Amino acid sequence: MSVPARAERTLKVNGESHVAPEASTRLLSFLRDELSLTGAKFGCGEGSCGACTVLVGGRPVFSCQATVGEVGEEEVTTIEGADSPVARALQEALAAEGASQCGYCSPGMVLRASALLEGKPRPSEAEVREAMSANLCRCGCYKRLTAGILRAAGATATATATATATATNRVAGETPGEGFRPARPFDLTPPEERQWFELLGDGIIATSSPALEAASAGRSGAWIHLSPSGEVTAFCGKVDVGQDNTTAFRLLVAEELSVDPGQVGVVLGDTDLCPYDMGTFASRSMPDAGEALCQVAAGLRHHLEAKAGARLGLPARAVQAREGAVRSDGAVLDYGELATGARVVEVVGPGQRLLAPSRRLPAGPIRPSRREAFSGARRFVSDMRLPGMAIGLVIHPPAPGDKLARIDRAALAGMAGVQLVEEEGFVGLVADDLAAGLAGLRALSPQFETGAPSFSDLEEYLRHHPAEPGGWAGRFEEASGELDEGLAGASFRFEATYTAPFIAHVPLETRAALARFDRGRLTVHVGTQTPFRVRAELAEALGMDEADIRVIVGPTGGAFGGKHGSDVALEAARLSRAAGRAVLVHWTRREEFTSGYLRPAAVIDVRAGLGSDGALASFELVDTNAGAAGLSFPYRAAARRLRFQPSTSPLPQGSYRALAATANHFARESAIDELAAIAGKDPASYRLALLEDRRLAELLELALERFGWQEKSSEERGLGVALGLEKGGRVVTCVEVRSDREGFRVARVLTAYDCGRLVNRDAVANQVEGATMMALGGALFEEICLRQGRQQTTRLSEYRLPRFEDLPALEVELLDRPEEPAAGAGETPMVAVAPAVANALFDASGLRLRSLPLLPAYRREVG
Ligand code: FES
Ligand code: FES
Asked: Whose CA is nearest to atom 3 of ligand 1?
């Protein structure tokens, strides 16, 4: 590519010519910061994720790597300018397939796929995977992405779209929107003093009472507004970070109120407008907020029936709310009619009579419109730009345990466009732009001292550094029967240790926050799972009243349990307060790896005793460090003990999708397989004979039948099964692997899932598929590497994640139990993947691996 002289250099982007900056300027930076074309995303900065993909002369290019000079005179196309027939077909097809969750990878996917289809209009599935391999989807939507690309190519003609209604999610920031600023946050204001009608106009409000909120685990509340036009707007304090609980909430409200889901808007994650909620984690959206929304919707329905009955002079039993109206034998009163001229606030208590399943309107499959994800119109916090906004940079230690020792303040003197901010151990810069900020950071040349512990064996370290329990790491012990006697008297005794490493969340959008002060009030846009906790932590750290802080969670590029707490929000707020202007802080990938927290490493000891008939006499599982999640034991055993011992972790650790349940299931389900082998039984039959939980036994039978389970597999082909019981959901995972001396490959995964009442089948299937892909990463290759206790993994290129090439044949079987409460779907589907892979590998090779990740362990053993 040629580099023209400076004076004549222009850059053509989406059909328009722009004066080009310095030839060494990164294309991504020019597009985002100068042209506000934010469809190209920052994901890694090193050519490892594809989030920044644009087309240069029709070829896909990592804009984080290419310089403006390298582009030369070729035309750049970003997602904002991608309007070719192929690009439009892709956007349609990918949206119809529901091929996204958070949507952060979606623009890059469209552009790379359009380059493929322009050159090869009818690619095979293998060619799609190969061509797309440079682009990562951390949400794991590879199956749907592949299907969407093939669909756009005309290679598939599925009927999915015709059977699927679409609806537009109304999330925080869209409607009623941040443009409205109440005098005080609604959750800190008594219902009668809230500015409902200034926000929403006339109508009827139904709001949860304190008793209803207390009755919901996690104190979830809900409120719902019915407008004179019949529009319904529901508010709750959960957030949607890609899991699409928004659509499930919409469906629940629509069903309970008996209205079309298209009439229901949902507002989430705005602390000024939404009810308090502890946070969106542990698969609590449906049990907490879903239940609160159902109760409030039922309360509103009862109110409407009573009002209509009074208007018609009929007793309540003579009218019925149905299909957007209250009906009697001879009259119909639309909901909107009943709300006209009203300014009523109905406070709803717990125990509302919900509609019987037979009376719920079947809404049909709802798939939210995801077109805005594929068109680049979905804007994340890191995409936000405000007039006069500054860029914030913070000095973070290069590795956990390091401490800032000194900076060269004098070197900053005279540098234009940067301001140093120091308070309470915090050191950051406010800069006019990123280039000035980076120059300022280099000038400060921060020096660090390490305070990290030094050790060579993580397992030994965790065993010998017990910690006092606290937070999620509360000590846990559950025991029944005489364990030691059972072990002593067993015909066969079994002991084994299973381990899992620290792993990282790696949301494709690294942490970002935009803070601004206005007349003493702070507003922070941040991708977090805990907006109310962030508000409280900001108030404490900044010495402010919570009522003067608003936290808004808009579209967020993934979280997976990794975006709790106020870290980046507080950094942006401190810098904004010091600089007196809006400040955006967007962490680098390195900061995301080293300044967040990790999934805890696990050391798990299992002891078991079998009777002479192979029956389980005793079973003990002791988890050191990872946590108590998933320690429940679904099998029959005369004696059992399940215990969690917290450790002092050498690295920061915390919440993660399914947290310890993955490691605990890996240990238990691997051990059960080993016990079946000792007893000379087929592992699936062995489980069936021991299972105590009826729903799980039925699910296992269903999975085995669908999978085509065989007792013995061929050489090099192995089948494995594992199951899980967690957070009210039940899961069975069946896996087929192919192995040889080079390694092994997961060829097929079937997940059978029972989450009780299925509120939104398509969203649950999408979550199961994504959770399976994420779990395959942890099972096969994800690992934070340590050397003498120091974290070595700091870049995406050093951390292997699931990609298109890792996609197995992925099947999902969902068991609907309308009579059971809805459990979440984001976490439990992943817990049985790793043991099912390990068990399949044992079936194929006779090799039993007890340490995650399995692929390097396999190579060590075989090679
Ligand atoms: Fe450019 Fe990851 S490849 S941001
Ligand atoms: Fe692909 Fe989230 S949808 S990264």
From this structure: 47
